[in-house]
Specification:
The complex is a heterodimer of chains A (435) and B (321). Chain A has 2 domains: 97 residues, Urease, subunit C, domain 1; 306 residues, Metal-dependent hydrolases (TIM Barrel, Alpha-Beta Barrel). Chain A is α/β, with parallel strands linked by helices and 435 residues long. Chain A contains 15 helices and 18 strands. In chain A, 59% of the residues are buried. In chain A, strands 1, 2, 3, 4, 5, 16, 17 and 18 form an 8-stranded mixed beta sheet that branches. In chain A, helix 8 packs parallel to helix 10. In chain B, the strands form 2 sheets. Chain B has a 5-stranded parallel beta sheet. The relative contact order of chain B is 0.16. Chain B is built from 13 helices and 9 strands. Classes of the chains: A alpha/beta (435), B alpha/beta (321). Chains A and B meet through helix 6 of A and helix 3 and helix 4 of B.
Chain lengths: 435, 321
């Protein structure tokens, strides 16, 4: 059992309880023992004390969209290296997408992931099982057996289910097992050969565009099916202003939630030029108007969740002509810092952005974590909201280097990460005695 | 030594590569057109040689098949005295990019002075240029740019019209998939030419208004009063059934025939970057008729490529003597 920990003189921010106050947090036996305003009454014998003046203590982040390469593409990322990157970024739980080799579409593979993560990963891993066998969008998987094996939700990862009939069947059947469906809505016939947002920039670059309706049409379909079937539906990644409107209108009529990648919230299509493949993402980076609509959607609650969409890709598949390069960017390590950009710019309150990375994912996934309540798992982070740093390739913890924030100046860094009361990350600055 | 002596060949050209018209300002663009005009006599004289690139190695690296552009660059290099090697790289879509980077490193080790590249993907030539230590010329990258085509078109227009500024040029056809259209719109727009694009909506990319002065879906309106009618090749095997319903409907509404051409200025010239689909985008009688300057474009192509190679590579001392 790990030693008790007292974090004191911190700004405690916990969206689930609406807390934003100065105080202390006691951790012991893997859970939160106490959260007190002001100074702690006493320090337990043998406890580690973290002096957190100027720091924020918050629930550990829950990242609802993470890809690794294990099994099948371990050279890109393993569960262990993804977990190291997660811990460095303040992510204490992540949902693992099923796009591996083999695909996570069978109980035995879920079991492998659970065991492997338990043995090698220093943060919590929630496996998402594939909705359809082989992610082919043709036959549904064994939702019940997958849940028994440890799957926390269903998702076809990067793939999007094209058939409305199959989606209806999946939602109807998923309701039996109370499993949320996380779906990336993209109409393949409208995406076509598109590789970036459809518009002037794509035209000037000679690249094929992905129209807004490639997302809004299948999203509208999914929302209607969710209302009709009563399934728990999570629109995994919104990118367009129209999508926010659709979700907003549908929410009161079903168990509907929506997420967005931090990339779509912090970047726009201008970042792509000229042919920067680390910014080739799915859904694509959209216009600044869309990005602004996303920020409004987050503030209004239409968008519930902000995730990293961490997707490790090696340089072989990224050092390619833009149209031929793979999609995706890593993001676990930069999730909080990129989110704090929106706080520092005055766009989003700290409580709102933290809620989208703690409380709401926990509620959607039915996890006990994501809050600083007494008795809750001691998964939490201590971060300096103002710590300045530069995203440098050499410092990246993830096994892959494809960050969309290469060279970016960040304000705000994680100093300590705890999972079940155990320290899994300490920032170099803390070891130098700077905190 | 024969050949031009007062043509500005001694002025240094301030770029290592020619990747697109978008990298040039109007002075550099006009300079290249002037240099190209000065190159025309070389190809018309019995001894077609101006050996400013003597001892230089030029590699033509074509990832997409091409007859005219590749031979035009080859002849241009040879007339300047360069050693020219042609490489056609057959690729599957899966290994294309890998081949690009690997090939770049391999060719670079052979110490060429210039690599002329055509590739099916936008931005691929720029990517390759970052991997080599020599000059790179873009001979077409996807639907992005084809700068020497735009330069030769501008030279052709100026030869026939005596000027560029103030003219109206209608570019007609598959704008969405055309690098020729993009480079021409950039170049002509920069030189105060009024540009029109004429195409059905399915062949007009979003935001094309940023590049063209005017956008037309009715070809008759688009050609009215034009000084130059520039037709584009339609990839009709790919377009039929999706972007256009049929070749005959396309020809009816967007093919250049005498009736539609009659709406342009009486002295309007007709251009085409080739290869032509006679009876798809252009009436054979127009293509081969008196208004057509299509073969003149081909001749100007060699002059432009000589000028570009010379501008990027020629040792100023050698030219000056």
């Amino acid at each position: 059992m790990s030693k008790p920990v007292v974090i004191r003189n911190a700004r405690i921010v916990d969206p689930a309880t609406g807390t934003d106050q100065r105080g202390a947090v006691h951790l012991a036996d893997g859970v939160v023992k106490d959260v007190v305003a002001g100074a702690p009454a006493g320090i337990p014998d043998g406890a580690d004390v973290i002096e957190a003046r100027g720091m924020v203590v918050a629930p550990g982040l829950i990242d609802m969209r993470v890809f690794t390469g294990e099994p099948g593409h371990e050279y890109r990322e393993t569960l262990a290296t993804a977990a190291d990157a997660a811990a460095a970024g303040g992510v204490t739980t992540f949902v693992l997408m099923p796009d591996t080799l083999p695909v996570v579409d069978d109980g035995a593979i879920v079991d492998f992931i659970v065991r492997r993560a338990g043995a090698t990963a220093k943060v919590n891993v929630v496996p998402a099982a594939a909705i359809t066998k082989g992610l082919r969008g043709e036959e549904i998987t064994e939702f019940g057996l997958l849940k028994e094996a440890g799957a926390g939700c269903l998702s076809d990862g990067r793939c999007s289910i094209q058939s409305a009939g199959l989606m209806k069947a999946a939602m109807t059947y998923a309701a039996n097992f109370d499993l949320p469906i996380l779906h990336h809505a993209a109409d393949a016939s409208l995406v076509g050969d598109g590789v970036m947002n459809d518009g002037t920039l794509a035209t000037i670059s000679g690249l094929k565009g992905i129209p807004l309706v490639a997302e809004t049409i299948p999203l509208a379909r999914d929302l209607q099916l969710a209302i009709a079937t009563g399934a728990r539906y999570h629109a995994a990644q919104l990118s367009t202003a129209g999508s926010v409107e659709l979700v907003r209108a549908a929410k009161s009529r079903g168990a509907i939630s929506a997420g967005i990648s931090i990339n779509n919230l912090a970047l726009n299509e201008n970042d792509v030029a000229p042919y920067r493949t680390y910014f080739k993402l799915s859904p694509p980076l959209r216009s600044e108007d869309d990005r602004q609509a996303m920020i409004e959607g987050l503030k209004s609650g239409a968008i519930d969740v902000v995730h990293s969409a961490h997707d490790p890709q090696d340089t072989e598949v990224k050092r390619q002509p833009f149209a031929e390069a793979s999609e995706g960017a890593i993001g676990l390590e930069t999730l909080l810092a990129a989110a704090l950009r929106l706080v520092h710019s005055g766009d989003v309150p700290l409580m709102t952005i933290l809620r989208a990375m703690t409380q709401r994912p926990a509620e959607i996934l039915g996890l006990a974590a994501g809050r600083l309540a007494v008795g809750a798992p001691a998964d939490l982070i201590v971060f300096d909201p103002d710590f300045p740093w530069l995203v440098a390739e050499a410092d990246i913890v993830s096994r892959s280097r494809n960050t969309a924030f290469e060279g970016a100046r960040m304000q705000g860094a994680v100093m300590h990460t705890f999972v079940a009361g155990r320290s899994v990350f300490g920032h170099a600055a803390t070891r130098e005695g700077r905190t | 030594m024969s050949g031009p002596t007062d043509t500005g060949l001694r002025r240094p050209f301030p770029h290592r590569n020619l990747l697109g018209i978008s990298q040039l300002n109007q002075y550099e663009t006009l300079d290249l057109i002037d240099r190209a005009e000065a190159m025309i006599p070389i190809s018309r004289q019995p001894r077609k040689i101006l050996p400013t690139l003597s001892g230089k190695t030029q590699i033509n690296l074509f990832f997409e098949p091409s007859t005219r552009t590749q031979s035009s660059f080859e002849i241009a290099g040879k007339r300047l005295g360069a050693q020219v090697t042609n490489m056609s790289v057959r690729t599957s879509s899966v290994t294309k990019g890998e081949t690009l980077i690997d090939t770049a490193a391999t060719l670079n080790a052979m110490r060429p002075d210039v690599i002329v590249v055509r590739h099916g993907a936008a931005g691929a030539v720029e990517l390759l240029s970052q991997k080599v230590g020599c000059s790179v010329i873009n001979a077409g990258d996807g639907a992005h740019e084809h700068p020497t085509q735009a330069l030769l078109d501008a030279l052709t227009i100026r030869q026939h019209k005596g000027r560029l500024a103030g003219l109206t040029v209608a570019i007609c056809g598959d704008i969405a998939n055309s690098r020729v259209a993009r480079s021409n719109l950039l170049l002509l727009g920069m030189l105060q030419v009024r540009t029109r694009v004429v195409a059905p909506r399915t062949l007009l990319p979003r935001g094309i208004e940023a590049l063209a002065t005017e956008v037309f879906t009715d070809m008759r309106e688009g050609l009215a009063g034009a000084d130059v009618v520039m037709m584009l090749r339609l990839q009709h095997e790919r377009a039929a059934g999706r972007l256009i319903p049929s070749v005959r409907e396309y020809y009816r509404f967007y093919g250049l025939d005498a009736d539609k051409l009659s709406l342009a200025k009486p002295d309007a010239i007709v251009m085409h970057p080739g290869p032509m689909n006679r009876g798809v985008e252009i009436d054979p009688a127009i293509a081969d008729g008196p208004r057509s300057v299509i073969t003149h474009q081909v001749e100007m192509g060699v002059a432009v490529r000589m000028a570009v190679l010379d501008a990027l590579l020629a040792d100023p001392e050698q030219v000056a003597q």
